[in-house]
Design a protein that fits this description.
1 helix; 16% strand; two-stranded antiparallel ribbon; two-stranded antiparallel sheet; alpha+beta
């Protein structure tokens, strides 16, 4: 529940087994190594589910919204994929 550094545990589903990606500082407050924006994390999860994160959208309040947000610089984190 920390906005600057958090941990996620993933298993199976195309994720490399037995690896750690990135690190936080000494007190676990901020991401210090290989930070991943939440939009990139969401794009990676959608990719693992077999969905194209940049093409997937939903209709909300008269607009087509993308699940990964409005930016075009969102990328899948390929380093964690098996």
């Amino acid at each position: 529940h920390n906005p600057w550094g958090y941990s996620v545990w993933l298993a199976g589903g195309g994720v490399k087994p037995g690896m750690a990606y990135g690190a936080t500082d000494d007190v676990g407050l901020r991401a210090a190594d290989k930070p991943v924006h939440v939009r990139n994390f969401h794009a990676t999860l959608l990719h693992l589910l077999g969905l194209d994160p940049k093409a997937l959208s939903y209709f909300h309040n008269g607009l087509d919204e993308r699940l990964i947000g409005p930016t075009d610089d969102v990328e899948v984190v390929h380093d964690i994929l098996a």
